[in-house]
Amino acid sequence: MNDKKYYITTPIYYASGDLHVGHCFSTILADACARYKRLRGYDVMFLTGSDEHGIKISKKAAEAGLSPKEFVDKVVDNFKTIWKRLGISYDKFIRTTDKSHEECVKKIMQRLWDNGDIYLNKYEGLYCVPCETFYTEGQLVNGNCPECNRPVEKASEECYFFKMSKYQDYLFDLFKQNPDFLQPESRRNEIYNNFVKDGIQDLCVTRTSFDWGIKAPFDPKHVIYVWCDALVNYISALGYNSDDDSDFKKFWPCDCHIIGRDITRFHAIIWPILLHACGIPNFKKIHSTGFITLKGDKISKSKSNGFNPMVLCDKFGVDALRYFILKDGPIYSDTPFDFEVFLKTINADLCNDLGNLVSRTVAMISQNFDNIPCPNQFTAEDQVLIDMCNGLNTKLETAMDDERVDIALREIFDVIRYANKYIDITTPWVLAKTDKDRLATVLYTLAETIRICTCYLQAFLIEIPNKIFDKLGTSVDKKTIDSAIVFDIKNYGGVVTKGESIFPRLDIAKELEFLNQESNTSPDTTKEVKTEQTKTDEIQEITIEDFDRIKLEVGTIIASEKVEKADKLLKNTVRINGVNRTIVSGIAKHYNPEDIVGKQVVVVTNLRPVKLRGILSEGMILCACNGDDLSLISPIDVMKDGSVVC
Ligand code: ME8
Fold first, then answer.
1. Which of 52, 63, 111, 272 is most buried as measured by Cβ atoms within 10 A of its Cβ?
2. How far is the CA of 448 from the centre of ligand 1 (A)?
């Protein structure tokens, strides 16, 4: 039986809209940790999921003309598509609308009720609807919500309270006796000073003002506060208190909850108390990260400055995003997603340092030998690199025990950089003419260095490691990883393959322009979540709210062709917000396809898709019509794709 176990979680993301690059950080970070531990022989449980209840989501669903469940189903499909593209290797995806989760939450609440930890009272306070959180006057910033800076509303309702204050001594002790339970230290001090040291308030744990949530088992008129519902995901996903609790027995307590700093308070105060009150041992550690910022602002759904991770993956490959986010991400403090730094980092590290090392080594081996040569006598020069390779193990184990993927990657790339220097020192191109025996040892040392670094890189990158293994004609059996990461003459690979470089060089100026253009386009799930069309009689007048329901955006026609056997129809590809849509329009008698490519047009983007001549048309391009005259409508000045027409 494997006694090396590792349980890591991400936050469960609000199913209220699309995911942006900021959201990807926690998930890519947790994924790298999970992959690393699997590589090192751990039995891993990596959990992510979706947070689907609450007033915010029911409002969004109503805006989209869908039931909350229909709405979240579509959003969750999008989450899963994004995670797949980013190579997120989760073992379980929990949804708070899963029946098993709902049952688990009810049992937990019932337990608190049975313990006498819940009482009925009235809540009067300041409530931030988007954040679903009550605040006291003192916690507001300039009178607004301290998290999202939007106005709060006075709210008063009868609700049940959880006697958190009863457990304040327990929490004091947790903070005092387990200094590592909340990292980084600065965040622990902040939470302790602002929320713990002066005493813990009881928590309002039910609501009656909306019903999209889990009903309280002791009073079904009330639904359970979203945070009590959401936090329980970490144990409901393991089958806690269910017929099959084997995963709970195996993996709990959780080794690490990765979260963003805005939700530290919930995880470091409510969650440990809730667990303790239910007699469940506490988790081992919370790792609270900073935010990714864009142009000085936190990337956020509410600020509409999101940046769609799919755009980055499609353009630069999944490993470019993963590498940059893991190396330079906001592991503790907020970090800007600086486009120029991103592009330069990718060129310097993936293209130059790693890419060139692999190409040079493979090229020299194939020019001089049939396959990776056997080494002869190692010298002191070789030994420096060999020691660096063998030293990685301890360094990476230490870094990864603290989820410091940034440090781990730097250690690996230090070796890669030194290997490039080693080429300059040993001058294999000279040895090729003078000393083939020595050349064999040098090239073997390089191939072995690349192989060992690539073994580790498998935890962080998805596509590049396999490309490198293919070039070296080798692979790694994860079962024997402990021996595979030791520099050894038995480990040499097979026949090397030259070919394309493992990472192409980026044209910084060109890509910078692309990124700057894309950065103002915000992902918007309502594009995917099609609104329900209501049948109406002819409408003479409409209200501004009616008009607001029609989403008009500027897009650019990037391709157009005639539809076979339909002389009026053109099949157009229109780029809006970085996403290409197919739109079939009845304009073939007025425009040749080649004349409209590159033109900007106005598109109804929330029109229900329809099939025309077997082609799914996703929207409508607007035209001015007068009898037989027809003209496409374009903005007078060139506008950014995705500009809203209002
Ligand atoms: O908070 N940079 O969900 P959420 C880095 N459902 N991280 C960011 C970020 C940014 N720009 N923007 C958001 C919730 N995040 C709850 C969690 S867990 C029981 C319930 C992080 O979708 C944010 O800090 O609003 C949080 O950790 C996560 O994304 C999910 O945010």
1. 52
2. 41
What does pTM read for this prediction? 0.79
Nearest-atom number in ligand 1 for the CA of 298 is 11
Per domain, the residue ranges of the chain are: 336-546, 550-632
Domain with residues 550-632, CATH architecture: Beta Barrel (2.40)
Q: For 177-197, write each residue's pLDDT tens digit.
A: 998 899 999 999 999 998 888
Question: pLDDT tens across 389-416, in order?
Answer: 999 999 999 999 999 999 999 999 999 9
Which residue from 518, 501, 457 is spatially nearest to 314, judged by alpha carbons? Answer: 518
Residues lining ligand 1, CB < 6 A?
Answer: 11-14, 22-23, 25-26, 51, 230-231, 233, 259-260, 262-263, 291-292, 298-300
3-class DSSP state for residue 28?
Answer: helix
Please give the CATH number for the structural domain made up of 336-546.
Answer: 1.10.730.10
Ligand 1 pocket, mutate which of 128, 263, 283 (most atoms under 8 A from CB): 263
134 Cα: distance to centroid of ligand 1 (angstroms): 18
CA angle 489, 494, 499 (to 5 degrees): 125
Atom of ligand 1 nearest to the CA of 11: 18
Burial 10-25 (b: 16+ CB within 10 A, else e): bbbbbbbbbbbbbbbb
